[in-house]
Amino acid sequence: MDNTDRKILYEAAVEGWWWKAKYKLKIHKSAATVAINENADTILHVAVEMGQNYFVEKLLGVFKRQKDTETQNSKGQTALHIAAMVGNMHAAQLLVQKRKEELLVILDNKEESPLDIAYATKKINTYTYFLKCPDLSLSSYKCQNKCYIGCYFSKTIW
Length: 158
Prior knowledge:
Elements: H1 3-15, H2 18-27, H3 43-50, H4 53-62, H5 79-86, H6 89-103, H7 114-120, H8 124-131, H9 141-154
Helix pairs in contact: 1-2, 1-3, 3-5, 4-6, 5-6, 5-7, 7-8, 8-9
């Protein structure tokens, strides 16, 4: 895959042009997990960041391997980290439904989980959604403190 193909995939993800991405994905089977910008983001990262949720849903349906959702960019962030950062709740739900156990506990290069990022960026709805995920590991002290604070914000009683 050359730079022209990467540019086309990037534009398709930004604009939500699923038909264009689908065509490129048929030609280049590995295109879904290839870095398409200087941050080593994939088309999934970009579509999540831009709020192109129809595109995200279709792309997740095309993934042959569930591990494709775990691809990390140069900062170590998965698409779920990006969803947490921008507060894209719908994309977060789609990603968690696809690969909950693994995605919620992957740490980026700063040792932050999607839960940590949602908290730090004050995306309270996304943060409380993550807290309600039953398989979320609350083992770290850092995470436990945030969960108690999150309970206060979401008025959830433990």
